[in-house]
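INFO batch 0412 | record 1 of 1 | parsing
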Amino acid sequence: MAYRVVQNGYKGRVDSQAAGQADTGDVDALTSAVLTASRLLVAVSARSLAMAEERVTLPQFRMLVVLASHGETKLVALADALAVNPSTALRMVERLSSAGLVSRRVNPASRREVVLRLTPAGQQIVDDVTARRRQEIAAIVRRMAPRHREGLIRALRAFTDAGNEPAEQSRDLVPLGWE
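INFO prediction complete | emitting tokens
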């Protein structure tokens, strides 16, 4: 037996077959809603990155975000986090290092390894893009009714938990990137 909440909030028992049919419709409707919302979020992300595009490409920005969230990182771990080959990651690191956005140093624990970290200039790009993104998202959220905001918080937390996305870090400007 499964339970289904009807409009008035009453939880009533329904048979599994009916629950599966309701779940399919709910999943389809929710999937459509998430896809629509994701278009909005992609547009917000693109606008927030527009000013930084003079200095970095989207894949390079992704690398900066990963470094910002992980701190000092080995090349292989960085490539894994970005889901790219180490050779691809190395080429990106070389470009970002030449631009003064990433620094490299020999790992004192293993002299054969190189560790990477953001420079202050690289961190500034991440912070600026994130600040613009936060401002635009906040403006959208302010236009929502308070009761919808509360529901959205719960729904998005459940969604990100289901996708194994880590919760936002505690610092003021958190990189909103991909991992």
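INFO post-check: Confidence is low (pLDDT under 50) at residues 1-20, 170-179.
INFO record closed
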